[in-house]
Amino acid sequence: MRELIYVSAAKLRQLVPDLPKRAGALRDVEAEVTTPVGGVKVGKAAREAQPGLAQAVAALEASSRAPKWFADPEVRPGDWVHFEAPMSYGVVAGAATFLDVDEPVPGYPTGGQLRLLLHGSRSHLVGSGFATHDPDPEMTHSLWLHFTIALREAEADNGRSTLDDDRLFEGWLRQALRWLTREFQPRYTAAWVAGYARITARVPTPSGMTLAATPLYVEHVQPPAG
Fold first, then answer.
1. What is the rounded CA–CA span in Å between residue 6 and residue 20?
2. Strand 114-121 versus strand 132-133 pairing type
3. Helix/strand/coil for 179
4. Mind listing the pLDDT tens digit for each residue in 158-213?
5. Separation of alpha carbons 32 and 186, rounded Å
6. Closest by alpha carbon to 107, among 198, 15, 16, 223?
7. Which of 17, 75, 218, 224 can bridge 6 by disulfide, Cβ–Cβ 3.0-4.6 Å?
8. Cross-referenced InterPro entries, in alphabetical order (predicted)?
9. Cα separation of 144 and 135, whole Å?
10. What is the pLDDT of residues 55-64, one digit of tens each?
């Protein structure tokens, strides 16, 4: 059984312009994407196949902007990537937010060195019951809300972030990551997920690199074997 967590209908229609505007359009055909840590199943139609997620992924893979693996050192803002990672998620300041674990774990050796932070519209979450995290006053009045707003603006600008001010990132991004880690507790709550996303920012940090990205979709997957 497939367990989708997040699907951006707007991105689907960018990739498949004639996608029907109805809920049934998200049913897809059987497909499989190969990643460095194994195959990721992309859907299986319950009834007759209709244009949807698999068609959008196929269009993206066949395009001149075919996704890279998210840990590819050549990944830059504006690039599409596919990912598979243990992540925790919730709603923060009105935004759907996913954060990976902050240490290496089996199947995910880059944890803690290459942080993956996904952000998108709360309305694209599938289902209900997601935890909501309200930033404390220190975060709200410093730069957390500016962070989410800036990333949304970067997303609107063809996915290319112009946020290169060191003062903007070096201090408060680390502060935001510390706050998210404390709230989400990914060491204990992270589940394996996979999907596709577009990079909105690539930020050097003292421990390595943080990639911020806005997802096309996110789904639960089995941890890599072995």
1. 19
2. unpaired
3. helix
4. 444 444 455 555 556 777 788 788 888 999 999 999 999 999 888 877 778 889 89
5. 28
6. 223
7. 218
8. DUF7019
9. 8
10. 889 989 998 9
